[in-house]
Amino acid sequence: MKEIAINPVTRIEGHAGVRIYLNDRGDVDSAHFQVVELRGFEKFLSGAAIEEAPRITPRICGICPTSHHLAAAKATDQIFGVEPPATGKKLRELLNIGQYIHSHSLHFFMLAAPDFLLGHDCPPETRNVIGLARHSPDLAKKAIAVRKFGQRLTEAIGGKPIHPSNALPGGMSAPLTAAKRAELATMADEALRIALEGWDIAHTLLDGVDTEFGAVRTGFMGMTNHGVYSTYDGPVAVLNGEGGRIGSFTGTDYTKFIEEYSEDWSYLKFVRLKGGENYRVGPLARLNVVEKMGTEHADAALAEYRERFGTVSQAALAYNLARYVEFIASCELAVKLLSDSGITGTDVRTPAVEVVNRRGVGIIEAPRGTLIHDYTVNDAGIIERCNLIVATCQNNYAIDRGVEDVARRVVKNGALSDGAANQIEMVIRAYDPCISCATHAIGRMPMKIELVRKA
User: So where does Mg(2+) get bound (predicted)?
Assistant: First the structure.
């Protein structure tokens, strides 16, 4: 048995692996994306008070804690039978936008860009954020400035730059002050300027790249509000592999459309449509689902994106460009919300008094895709059952099949070069997987690739 290990693979959040199995001729027989970490949060949330869920679940991950915070808060709204006031809802939406600006800029500029701007076969000691900073120092500085705005937005509205805590049943615990709004509005204008300048680079990022690498035919799922891009509120639309609309859902209706399942090579759950068709979520899926972004510059970017990839794309690498279109939209939406003087209103919460419903399902669009928090409680509001369906689980099948597709292309004579291994990793990175969210990992973080020759 021959093994080639790459450990660690950089620029991925979490602990995962790839195993490539070779036949006697040295060709790829099969390959899998593997995750073998503990999934624990669903169990140790049982027995906690439901109002604690928005404070506990952000600890699942330090990269996308806001997503879990808000999904849990929306679920608690349902359980207590309360709806946030208009200002409270706007603050939640702005908090979610802060997560997008922070997460999308981090992934695009610091995780994905080195592969395209420096070259996928560039030496690994150079093909990273440090190498990018040396190659394009102005770009790196701008990326840091935008990320700073995303974190500042999270801190000002959520109470903390990481693991926010201000969303609670019925709204938010504190209003946004006029002084903070003024500060954030100035930063938002600068972030939008940087995002638009970056589009000059982003829209050419995949020029000359074979975007069929890792392409997988699936259906798609994403939130939309009457055809307009939305990340906090609205029904989730479901498309089949041809791009035809199957239907849409909100709340507990998600169980009519999707089902979870497992495979023996991974502890990470898989999710598929009822009937067996696999689907994807995240930036690519959302752009496949929506008719328009709803903001001037993002709509222009979407038009350019669709000139190349069409209205419905199956290309995995297109996730990178779709993510940037969303990044522009997020900056525009931040400017819009912070220009609204009503966002500093003090009516930010509807008091939650008693349990009205024994079950609550909170659904939002996290940066990586549709996130579902499903809680069942007893009459005292103690969690009896918790189910978390995260984006990486929903993309698990496509990542797995994309890995095998690229492995078959790049493994030559039973050998895997460093540049070829990185091409496999590029497909994984396109999805920006968050392994901690998907498995709630405990332990080490690196991903490794192993090449195994069957006896």
Answer: 42, 388, 440
